[in-house]
Amino acid sequence: MLFNPNTYDPAHLDDESRRLLRALVAFFEERGKKALVKSYIDRAWYDDFLAFSAKEGLFATFLTPAADGTGDKRWDTARNAALSEILGFYGLDYWYTWQVTVLGLGPVWQSANQTQRERAADLLDEGHVMAFALSERGHGADIYATDMILTPTGDGGFTASGTKYYIGNGNVAGLVSVFGRRADVEGPDGYVFFAADSRHENYHLIRNVVNKQMYVSTFELIDYPVNAVDVLHTGKSAFDAALNTVNIGKFNLCTAAIGICEHAMYEAVTHAHQRILYGKPVTAFPHVRRELTDAYARLVAMKLFSDRAVDYFRSAGPDDRRYLLFNPMTKMKVTTEGEKVVDLMWDVIAAKGFEADTYFDKAAMDIRGLPKLEGTVHVNLALILKFMPNYLFNPAEYAPVPTRHDPADDEFLFRQGPARGLGAIRFHDWRTAYDSRADLPNVARFREQADGFCELLRAHAPSEEQQRDLDFLLAVGHLFALIVYGQLILEKGGVDDHLLDEIFAILIRDFSAYATDLHGKAATTPEQAAWALAHIRRPVVDESREAAVWQQVLALAGAYEMRP
C-alpha cells in the first residue's frame, strides 16, 4: 500500500506521466539523503529542484489545462495527487513550492483573460513558479477585509498599494495572483484579482516570515501599475475565484501528509525492528506492536480516503458537487490523522526522532503545519457541518462514480461557479457502502454507532443556542466526519479484510473518544450526554486479524532507505 521508490511504477497512469514521476523519484534518490538533510538544515533555496522541474517541464505538464497547452499537458487530479505524494515523501518544502503554484494558477485558469492565460502557460514552460497573494497580516485569509487598495488611474487601469503576508513563492514568482479592492467602490463589487510580477520595480520583497527552507514571503506593492489587461476578476467573481482556488488547492494537503508519513514510517519501523533492548527487538514488545499497527492502519486509511476523493473531484459537475464535502475532509481529517501517525511512531522510536540526520525529525516538525494551512481544523470542520443534514437524511440518486485514472482534463474545477449553496448539495446514500461490507465485524459495529448518531440528531438535535456554540458543534462535527471517512474508505477498498477490519476497529475507538468528549461539554444536555455514554463501543477483538496486519507492518522493516 505504501509508496516505495525502489519499486514505484505508476502503471495506472499514461506513459508520459509515468516517465515524469519516475524521473522525479530518480532526481531525489540520486541527489541522496545527505543533500536532502543538509539543504533542510541550512534552509537552502531549492534551485536544483526547480531547475529539474523546468528542464523536464514537470509543472508545465501537470498544471497547464489542456485548452492552454499541447501534448500531454492537462489538469489531471489523479496524477497531480501522485506528484503531490512524492513531493511530500521527500520533504514538505518541495511540496510547498508546488502547492502555492497550484494556488497562484487558480485565479488565472478561472479567468477569461486570454492574455494572462497565455502568459501563465508561457511562464510554466520557462520553469517559473507562481504565488497566491490573498492573506494579510492584519486579516489572515479573511477575504472580506483587505488593505490592498487599487486606485483608478482614469484610463481603465489602477495603481495598487498594500502589503501581503504569508505568500509562498513570493520571492521569485513569475506571476502573483493578488487579491485587493478598489478605492472607489464599496462592498463586494469592489473586489479585484490581478496578476503581478515579483520582478517588477514596484514590487518590494520584505522578508521570509518563516524559519524554513521554503520561502513564505511578505511583500509590499507601492503604486504598482495594474493595467486593464492585468485584471483577472472583478466584483463577486473575484470573491468566488478566491474560494474556488482554495477548493482546488486544499486537496493537495492530504497527499503531502501521506507522503510525509510514508517516509517516516519506513525509518521508524526499520529502526524499531533493528534496535535490541533487553535482548529482544523493540518490535517484540506488545505496546510497540500496537502503536505501529495503529499507525500503519491509520496511514492506509488516509490513502484509501484520499484516493477515492480524487474520483469525486474528477467526476464533478454543476449537478454533482459532492467533492465540496470530501475536500475539507481531506484537508481536516487526513492531515490530523497524519499527526497521529507520526506521534504513534515517535512514541516508539523516542530519542531517535530528534536526530538531525533522519528524515523523521523533519516529518515530526512539518506534519504539524498541514492541518493549519488553507484554513485551520475548526474552520474546515465548521464547513463540513453544512453538509450534514442532506448527507445523513436526504440521499439522492447518482450514477456510480468510477475509479478515475483516465488521462482527462479536469476542466470543471475552473468553472465551479458561485461559491455558495453548500447546504443544498445532495449525496448518495452513505449506508450503501457500509452495507457492502457488513460481513466485517468492526464495520458492522461502527455502523451501529453511525446509526446511533442519526438517532441523536433526530431525537436530541442541537438547540439554537448549541448551534451558536462552536465548541459544542465541533464535537458533533468530529462524529459526523468519521461516518464520511468510513464511507469513502469502504468505497475504495482494495485491501485485505484483516486490514480493513482493523481500520474500522480504530474508527470505533475514535468514535467512542469523540462521544466521550461530547459527554463532557458544558453545553451538552443530559439527554445528549446519556446518548454519548450509550454509544461507546469496544472493537471486536480478533488475534488472527491483528497478527496478520502486524506482518504487513513488519514487512516495512528494511524495505526502503533513501540513498546516501
Automatic annotation (TrEMBL):
The keyword Flavoprotein applies. InterPro entries: Acyl-CoA_Oxase/DH_mid-dom_sf, AcylCo_DH-like_C, AcylCo_DH/oxidase_C, AcylCoA_DH/ox_N_sf, AcylCoA_DH/oxidase_NM_dom_sf. GO terms for molecular function: acyl-CoA dehydrogenase activity; flavin adenine dinucleotide binding. Pfam families: Acyl-CoA_dh_1. One of its GO terms (cellular component) is plasma membrane. Its cofactor is FAD. Residues 239-386 form the Acyl-CoA dehydrogenase/oxidase C-terminal domain. Coiled coil: none annotated. Keywords: FAD, Flavoprotein. Transmembrane segments: none annotated. The keyword 4Fe-4S does not apply. Gene3D superfamilies: Acyl-CoA dehydrogenase/oxidase, N-terminal domain (1.10.540.10), Butyryl-CoA Dehydrogenase, subunit A, domain 2 (2.40.110.10), Butyryl-CoA Dehydrogenase, subunit A, domain 3 (1.20.140.10). Belongs to the acyl-CoA dehydrogenase family. This is Acyl-CoA dehydrogenase. It comes from Actinoplanes philippinensis.
